[in-house]
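Quick review question:
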């Protein structure tokens, strides 16, 4: 009961903070997403590298932060996009620093540094490009994306809980034994319903058919994002990526599906010239 109460309270606080960060102003948005990104990178490096190579890990987190801030300046203040190339400098510093590592016995661990930047820093930094419209902050699209993802998660949980025993076929048993096809389809239905409601209320400016297809695209890609993070944790025998959110685990546990769903959703909208 105590754990459920803690989980419920922290979940509400988390959702409120996300809504505020996406609706109040650009500075709160930047601070929130920068914190999320740096925390996720820290968790990923702890999962994959333990306590090894702390200096290089710190430099990599700094490189991710610089990329985010540069894209924020491009999107919010219109600085030339070519300045984003500056973000390569700290990455080159990370590579150079690896040459000075005294312990070369686990040099292959440095590959995780670059994986973390591509896996976490790049998609979260690119969120700046859809949070601004000609320099004007509007987190509406990002908020709608999160609503679809949250609806998918809730639907999958409820369907898995109520129908999982009756339809117990596993989705990816070797990676995530608790996930069932019942949960998968329940999450898809919930995501579609949420997306269509967003279309009806005017939050989405797209035809309803595209709202529904977008929900399917984001749900499927989000499931793969969840499984991808689960595979990392299973490979390193870790249950939760961290403990920053009481009762929920780490930041990666909350945003694993986002890292796949956001890019997939944006690509769909861009290809069809909907944004």
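Suggested answer, residue by residue:
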């Amino acid at each position: 009961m105590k754990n459920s109460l803690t989980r419920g309270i922290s979940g509400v606080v988390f959702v409120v903070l996300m809504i505020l960060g996406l609706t109040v102003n650009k500075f709160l948005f930047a601070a929130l997403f920068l914190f999320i990104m740096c925390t996720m990178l820290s968790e990923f490096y702890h999962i994959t590298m333990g306590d090894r190579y702390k200096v290089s890990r710190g430099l990599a987190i700094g490189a991710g932060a610089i990329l985010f801030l540069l894209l924020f300046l491009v999107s919010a203040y219109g600085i030339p996009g070519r300045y984003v190339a500056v973000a390569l400098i700290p990455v080159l510093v990370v590579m150079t620093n690896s040459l000075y590592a005294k312990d070369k016995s686990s040099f292959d661990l440095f590959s995780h540094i670059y994986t973390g930047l591509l896996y976490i820093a790049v998609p979260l930094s690119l969120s700046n490009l859809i949070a601004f419209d000609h320099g004007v902050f509007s987190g509406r699209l990002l908020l709608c994306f999160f609503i679809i993802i949250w609806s998918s998660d809730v639907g999958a949980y409820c369907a898995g809980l109520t129908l999982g025993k009756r339809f117990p076929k596993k989705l990816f048993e070797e990676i995530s034994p608790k996930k069932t096809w019942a949960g998968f389809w329940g999450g898809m239905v919930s995501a579609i319903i949420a997306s269509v409601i967003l279309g009806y209320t005017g939050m989405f400016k797209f035809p309803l058919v595209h709202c529904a297809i977008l929900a399917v695209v984001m749900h499927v890609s989000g499931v793969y994002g969840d499984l991808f993070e689960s595979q990392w944790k299973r490979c390193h025998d870790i249950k939760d990526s961290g403990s920053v959110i009481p009762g929920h685990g780490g930041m990666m546990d909350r945003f694993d599906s986002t890292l796949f769903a956001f890019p997939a959703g944006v690509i769909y909208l861009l290809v069809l010239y909907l944004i």
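Why it works: Residues 139-275 form one domain. Residues 79 and 202 are 31 Å apart (CA to CA).
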